[in-house]
Amino acid sequence: MASRKTTSNKIIDIDKGKGKQSAGLPMKGRDIIVKSLENEGVEVIFGYPGGASMEIHQALTLSKKIRHILPRHEQGAAFAAAGYARTTGRVGVCMATSGPGATNLLTGIMDSKMDSIPLLAITGQVPAPVLGTDAFQECDVVGGTFPMVKHSYLVNNINDIPSIIQEAVHIATTGRPGPVLVDIPKNLQQQETIPNFKVSLNLPGYKPNYKPSPQQVKKAMHAIREAKRPIIYAGGGIISGEASDELRKFIEITGLPITNTVMGLGSFPMEDPLSLHMLGMHGAVYANIAINHADLIIALGVRFDDRVTGKLAEFCPNARYIHVDIDPSEINKNVAIDVPIQGDVKLALKMMCDQAEHKEGIGDWIEQLQGWKEEFPLAYELNEKSIVPQHVITEAQRLANDDVIVSVGVGQHQMWTAQFWRFHTPRTFMSSSGLGTMGFGLPAAMGAQVAHPDRQVINIDGDGCFLMNIQELQTLKIENIPVKSIVLNNAHLGMVAQWEDRFYDSLRGHTYIGDANFAEIAAAFGVAGETITKPEEVEPALKRMLAHKGPYVLDVKYPYNDQSHGHVIPMIPGGGAYLDSILDADSNLRQYWDKKGVEY
Q1: Are the beta carbons of 258 and 426 closer than 8 angstroms?
Q2: CB-based contact 127:185 (threshold 8 Å)
Q3: Is residue 29's pLDDT more than 90?
Q4: Does residue 152 sit in helix, strand or coil?
Q5: Is it true that domain 3-193 has CATH number 3.40.50.970?
Q6: What is the mean pLDDT of residues 31-60?
Q7: Where in the chain is the domain with CATH 3.40.50.1220?
Q8: How far apart are CA 462 and CA 437, in angstroms?
Q9: For residue 599, with 0-12 CB atoms within 10 Å meaning exposed, 13-18 middle and 19 or more buried, which class applies?
Q10: Does the pLDDT of residue 146 top 90, yes or no?
Q11: CATH class of the 214-375 domain in this structure
């Protein structure tokens, strides 16, 4: 039995059944917090202790239901909790102390806000009597995170803890998912009360609408029947809304083509002939051509962000729009929508499937799409002398298990993975897509591996990103979390250097970061690894990495190349349109079509 003595020498049991404690005896606030989290089904917390949160950590040592993972940086805690949430759909929980501990969570909180990830961030706070006095490690984290969260709480009554925790989890996981902050002063953690866990949810101001309008769905289906060149544009809302099965059924019935955002990868099998893969700045040329030639765009769980649309004034000039989204603020935000459908995308797709039929009269459109796929393939050239990073990615997929989970940092390696890894199931690809946070990959993979201990988890990282949270290698070692990391190491901040090559005459503005041997660094943490530099070493090294039972770092060294084959191609310059897509060192799509006499 997990029990402890209170200051009044009465024994309580924090592990008894939901909503109960022994003989109605008092509990400390810290124990009420842990019991409330248990009641919400929380199984893992990623937390770093400090003066204002150590009481909660003391209570966590007594829990038989919650596993605590100690990251080596609070940012790692937030990203690990997000990795747990991204791959399960359940709330991820991170915790930090006040002041710098809390502020170190902010990047991870904002990352979850941008990507609609259900995150519960718990922070310790200085005692309530000294709030506002600039006490040691005091920080107004509620005010600081106001634009970053769905909701936030500063607990001021110990008896409110059970209801606040219940509300926080509910808000984080419902409607459009997102982060919620709960800030708890230390004196409340130490106070005692007889808690009431039999709380009922009462949020009159928070009632997300899930039910799509049948009339709007009917209008959408009419628009689809009338369209000659329709295309589905599906994003992360399909995955967070658990709507992948409905999306696949809808496409199976209608035969409509589909393109995905980075967040939507895995919602539909990329190997399917109707998949146009990823669109946007570094998306496939054929995907960008297709959506800009469509006469109807069925937008599902997307936000029309700038990395997809480019220059808004020139984005899809001849198309009508259907937009399904749980968040009403996204509809008409960036693009004027012809048929808005506010509600749950899973329910909307079910309703659409009930009215759907095979789309006739688009054979020429599908044939045209196939022609563009053949004319503008995603491809790379092998090199006899040095390793080609795109080849490492394709080989890793070939050798990995079918249900492998992949995380990435941000930069060239991120885009190459999105381009060349063929994802086929949801919640298998993790990318900091909205905020674009370097250092995301390793801790996110750690959270995913904790959630799925029996599956392969691979972090494909760049050297710059890997350095950002490299300390989490120690967490992997101590906690025996077998994440495999492939570090594409070119001694540069590759994507920024690429922009320098393209737009700044290759003037290096502090983008050379120097050579490092990450296998040696891993060894210092007690983690296995190796370094490779030759093309013939790629396959055997990947096999050794995947066969290893514990965490592993494969340091893949290759030279940064300022020529087109060393860049992420295709590329739409910032603020450009799809016709500005860079195809190679010498031309863009507009120039290519002009030479061929193609009308666009």
Answers
A1: no
A2: yes
A3: yes
A4: strand
A5: yes
A6: 98
A7: 214-375
A8: 12
A9: exposed
A10: yes
A11: alpha beta
